[in-house]
C-alpha cells in the first residue's frame, strides 16, 4: 500500500471575535487527495474555519493556532508564519484557491468579469491575452455559463448570483490548485447544474490529487463527493471520520440528528424536518450540549465538557463515554 502524503495539518486553531469564541481548539489532518465535507448548521463555524485555514479571516477577528500548515511540493509550508504579501505571491491562487460563499464581493465592479479572469490567469500562468481569453471561454463553457463569449464582457452587477458563482468556480478550476477551500460552492444553483459542476470538480481534483475542504449543509453532497467528514457545532468539532463510517455508523448523537433531518423521508416521519435540536447550552447548562437528548448520557455529561476521544484509525468524536 502506498504511503499517504500529508496535505493540511491543523492543531489548536482558535478564532475569536472579542471574547466570543467562533472556533475553539480545532485540529485535524488531511492527506493528498482527501475531500473533506465540512458539515454543520448555519453559525456552526464552517465559513470561519475555511477562512482561517486560508489565512483569510475577516478584519476584527483574532486567530491563533499551535499548527497551521499545508504541504506544497512535499515541503511543509507554515501558513501562520507567512505575511499576507508572501501568501499572495506564493500560495493563494497558484497553490490554494477559494470558492467563497459571498463570491460577488471578490470582483471589482469596474472591470468586466472576463478582464478580471484574464488578469488572474496571466498573473499565475505564462499566457498571452489571446490564450487567456480562449481559456476563459473554455472554462465558462465547462461550468455551463450561458453564452460564454457575451458574458465575458459583462460587469459583475450584470450577472445573476448563479452566474457569478460559475465565474468563481471557473476561476478556481482554471488554477488547478493543490488545495481548494470551498464554502457552499454550488448553493443556489439548479440541481442538474450543481451535479454537473460537482462531477467536473470531482474529476479534475481526483486527477491532480488535490485536497479539498468543502463546506456544505447538504449531506447528500458530502456522501457523494467527500471521503472524510468533519461535523462542527458552535465552533467545536463534534466528529471527524471517513465518509462511510459517518453515514453507516455516526458516533455522536448530533451527527445522528443531522442525518435524520437530512434523510428521513417526510412520508415516514412527517415531523422529522421540523424537529429542532435543543442544545443544553441554550438552557444555560454546562457539560455536553447533547446531554438533554442523548440516550447514553450520565450525570457527568451534565456538568463536564467532553473532550475528544481518538480512535485507532484517526477518527474522533467529542464524547466522554468512549
Ligand atoms: S458526552 Fe454524554 S451526553 Fe455527550 S454525547 Fe457523550 S454520552 Fe452523550
Automatic annotation (TrEMBL):
This is ABC transporter ATP-binding protein. It comes from the Bacteria. Pfam families: ABC_tran, oligo_HPY. GO terms for cellular component: plasma membrane. It is a peripheral membrane protein. SMART domains: AAA. Its main location: membrane. It is found in: Cell membrane.
Amino acid at each position: 500500500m502506498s504511503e499517504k502524503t500529508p496535505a493540511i495539518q491543523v492543531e489548536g486553531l482558535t478564532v475569536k471575535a472579542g471574547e466570543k469564541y467562533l472556533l475553539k481548539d480545532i485540529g485535524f489532518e488531511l492527506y493528498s487527495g482527501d475531500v473533506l465535507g465540512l458539515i454543520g448548521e448555519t453559525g456552526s463555524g464552517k465559513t470561519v474555519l475555511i477562512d482561517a485555514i486560508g489565512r483569510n479571516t475577516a478584519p476584527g477577528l483574532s486567530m491563533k493556532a499551535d499548527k497551521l500548515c499545508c504541504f506544497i511540493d512535499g515541503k511543509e509550508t507554515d501558513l501562520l508564519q507567512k505575511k499576507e504579501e508572501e501568501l499572495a505571491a506564493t500560495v493563494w491562487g497558484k497553490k490554494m484557491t477559494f470558492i467563497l460563499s459571498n463570491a460577488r464581493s471578490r470582483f471589482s465592479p469596474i472591470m468586466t468579469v472576463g478582464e478580471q479572469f484574464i488578469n488572474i490567469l496571466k498573473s499565475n500562468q505564462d499566457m498571452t491575452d489571446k490564450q487567456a481569453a480562449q481559456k476563459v471561454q473554455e472554462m465558462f463553457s465547462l461550468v455551463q455559463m450561458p453564452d460564454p463569449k457575451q458574458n465575458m464582457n459583462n460587469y459583475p452587477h450584470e450577472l445573476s448570483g448563479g452566474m457569478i458563482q460559475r465565474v468563481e468556480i471557473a476561476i478556481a478550476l482554471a488554477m488547478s490548485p493543490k488545495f481548494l477551500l470551498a464554502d457552499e460552492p454550488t448553493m443556489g444553483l439548479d440541481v442538474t447544474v450543481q451535479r454537473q459542476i460537482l462531477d467536473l470538480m470531482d474529476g479534475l481534483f481526483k486527477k491532480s490529487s488535490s485536497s479539498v475542504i468543502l463546506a456544505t449543509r447538504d449531506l447528500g453532497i458530502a456522501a457523494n463527493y467527500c471521503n472524510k467528514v468533519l461535523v462542527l457545532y458552535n465552533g467545536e468539532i463534534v466528529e471527524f471520520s471517513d465518509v462511510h463510517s459517518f453515514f453507516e455508523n455516526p458516533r455522536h448523537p448530533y451527527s445522528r440528528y443531522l442525518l435524520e433531518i437530512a434523510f428521513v423521508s417526510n412520508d415516514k416521519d412527517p415531523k422529522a424536518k421540523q424537529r429542532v435540536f435543543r442544545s443544553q447550552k441554550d438552557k444555560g447548562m454546562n457539560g455536553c450540549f447533547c446531554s438533554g437528548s442523548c440516550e447514553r448520557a450520565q450525570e457527568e455529561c451534565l456538568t463536564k465538557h467532553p473532550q475528544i476521544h481518538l480512535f485507532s484509525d484517526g477518527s474522533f468524536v467529542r464524547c466522554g463515554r468512549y
